[in-house]
Amino acid sequence: MTTQGQSDFDPVSGRTTTGHEWDGIRELNTPLPRWWLWTFYATILWSVAYWVAYPSWPLATSFAGGAFGWTSRGAVSAEIDALNERRASQGAGLASATFAAIARDPKLMSIALAQGRVAFADNCAPCHGAGGGGGVNFPNLADDDWLWGGTLEEIAATITNGVRVDGVKATRLSLMPAFGKDNLLNADEILAVANHVRSLAGLDTQKGANLALGAKTFGDACASCHGPGGKGNPMVGAPNLTDAIWLYGSEIPSIVATISNPRNGVMPAWGGRLDPVTIKSLALYVHSLGGGK
Amino acid sequence: MNIAPGEATEDEGPLYAPAKKVFPQSVKGTFRSIKWTLLCFCLAVYYFLPFVRWDRGPNLPNQAVLADMANSRFYFFFIELWPQEIYYFTGLLILAALALFLSNALYGRVWCGYFCPQTIWTDLFLWVERRVEGDRRERMKLDAASWNAEKIGRRALKHAIWLLIAWWTGGVWVLYFADAPTLVRELATFQAPATAWIWIGIFTFTTYVLAGLMREQVCLYMCPWPRIQAALTDPDALNVTYRRDRGEPRMSLKESKRARVEGSPAGDCVDCFQCVAVCPTGVDIRDGSQLGCIQCGLCIDACDGVMAKIGRRPRLIAYDTDENSKRRMAGRSMAFRQVRSRTVLYAVLIAIVGGVMLYALATRARFAMSVLHDNAPMFVRLSDGAVRNAYTIRLSNKWGVTREFWMEASGFAGIVAASADADVTPDGRLHVSVEPDSTRAVRVFLTAPRASVTGKSTTILIQATEAASGEVVRVADHFFAP
């Protein structure tokens, strides 16, 4: 509720009022300094200059581009170009250096590890997990157990050619037969050999398991790849069955499922997608996660 | 509002006030002398401090006060602060706020009147103005005069000197952020980096505008302290006060003589407006405490001069309290109570905060260790069933020389430490050397044998020992298992 004030003078403060009154309280006139007004006008002028200089007004199908031709997309791509340039010059030594030479040069090593970490997060982490921790069905790259070998050269070869990739000549290739699905072994033999595999790793076996049949079947069907003692063979990607690491689980049903109808997991070949320096950096990074041989 | 659009009414006052021109007159006296002394002292500290040297050894800068942005270090004589110790600045700001409150409870706006950079530089600029254009009357005359050669010449000279001082002010500011003698040489030979020139430009501009052109407008419209101060003051705080009980009713010397002969009341104030003429913010102290009064005490000097001339007692305007004004009017004697609950509280708070800061500073470690557990993966099961956890350990060497550190972990039987970044000694400790005044991150793998891992999470202790001094830092962290 506002009313027009009768007097524009407030006797208590000795100052003029604006004439506005709210329930008997009159608003004193406290003028802003004139320079404040000029500052305000200056900001308006600044905004007009800004419209002219930078992209501002949306038009029907485009926008007013601004005198400087600046765009946020252009700024980002310039930054990315600069970054790529810097990476290329910093990593120039990586292209020609051998793994051994990089390991001797702390500066090259730190560049390789930094690039490898980023490339791993972009390309590898979706399956192998951040930090290479892996998961069920996806190998842990931080442990000391390797399907296809854990030296720098072997890791680089696996990354380049992938695992079981059609059309890549040097790909990591081996197929475990589907012993159950293709009726190569009967159900009793499969259960027995599953128990035998657990005993190889020092795990307990089922009550009444036919371990003799298991050992015989293992020797006939499995030892050619996994070795007579089940120690595995990285040449053909046959895992070590005696250790504490189980890609597909160590329970009897999991082992039976693998023997009956193996997963034969795959990994893309990165040779055509990533440049050699990035693959080299990735190999060094994966090697550094803790399990490198 | 019930006013129709576009309808101007008589009671609409001006919305914008033109700046009132203030021409402070020169004055001599106790407070003016104190102000000159403090001005010289503060400016001397500001302009010369960057050139003070302080030896810190071969690998560290030898400038006593230096904010080394490029290397993230702050040096203040014997103190060196790293970015993670920014809380010392927080503590310093808390101390500064409490000191401001205490000074306000004791002596009012003593900060505004004597120490504020705005006051000091304005005072300096006013001094230049007086030298070039003369005192109050001459400046007013010059201001009113048309733009003749003399006016243009004097104004140009004044602004040139102001800009020169402003330039020096900005120039010294950047010296706190780089080695001063080197930067001075670079500036003189135009080799200095662009950032130095930009910052000098910014500070030249702000000094010139704030101290030369804005002056009291900064105190009146920009500064938050007068608003806060008005809410913090109390009746016992000493403020620059016009002793109304003694001064009123004010009248000219002649009238007051006549009135006194007649026996009618006549105050000591002769309404000579000297207090207003000398005021740097142009206020009338006789209107009482007000936002525009920075309590610099120059009106006290001016009034004392007048009182001495006409043979009346000095200190008609004086540092006084509201409480005493009331007491005198009630016919009681004056009482100054400096020790009050609020001054004691502020002093105690200052002592506590200052004490905590001093204690922290005196007992802080010369090296620091932080331990960051890898969170992906949390742990790794190895082929022999052992469990491995990875940690990133950061060692900060705050000495000016390379130091050797020995790290060991405990918490499990048979725990083994390994690292690609550190040497492993035969007794299982890790040996790392850290460059002077720097931090080094070391990735460490801790492996516990299958038999000794019992719970999902176990507390472990990582201990680092500095070889030369024997200083030890221990950090507790976790070891995770399936």
Explain what you see.
Chain A is of the alpha+beta class. Chain A folds into 3 domains: 30 residues, no CATH class; 36 residues, no CATH class; 164 residues, Cytochrome c-like domain (Cytochrome Bc1 Complex, Chain D, domain 2, Orthogonal Bundle), CATH 1.10.760.10. Chain A has 11 helices and 5 strands. In chain A, strands 1, 2, 3 and 4 form a 4-stranded antiparallel sheet that branches. In chain A, strand 3 and strand 4 form a beta hairpin. The N terminus of chain A is likely disordered. Among the domains of chain B are: 169 residues, no CATH class; 114 residues, Immunoglobulins (Immunoglobulin-like, Sandwich), CATH 2.60.40. Helix content of chain B is 43%, strand content 18%. Chain B contains 16 helices and 16 strands. In chain B, the strands form 4 sheets. In chain B, strands 7, 8, 9, 11 and 14 form a 5-stranded antiparallel sheet that branches. Chain B starts with 15 loop residues before the first strand and ends with a strand. At the A-B interface, strand 1, strand 3, strand 5 and helix 1 of A face strand 1, helix 9 and strand 8 of B. Strand 5 of chain A pairs parallel with strand 1 of chain B, so a sheet runs across the interface.
Count of alpha/pi helices of chain B? 16
Q: Could you say what the CATH architecture of the largest domain in chain A is? A: Orthogonal Bundle
Summarize the main sheet of chain B. 5 strands, antiparallel
> Mean of the pLDDT scores of chain B?
91
Of all protein chain pairs, which has the greatest interface, and how many residues does each chain bring to it?
A-B, 36 and 35 residues
Q: What is the CATH first-level class name of the largest domain in chain A?
A: Mainly Alpha
Total number of distinct structural domains of chain A: 3
Using the CA coordinates, give the radius of gyration of chain A.
36 Å
Class computed from helices, strands and strand pairing of chain A: alpha+beta
Topology order of chain A in helix (H) and strand (E) letters = EEEEEHHHHHHHHHHH
Radius of gyration of chain B: 33 Å
Would you identify the regions of chain A where 5 or more consecutive residues have pLDDT less than 50?
Answer: 1-6
User: What shape does the CA trace of chain B take?
Assistant: elongated
Oligomerization state of this entry? heterodimer
> What's the N-to-C terminus distance of chain B?
73 Å
**In total, how many beta strands of chain B?**
16
Shape of chain A: elongated
Structure classification of chain B: alpha+beta
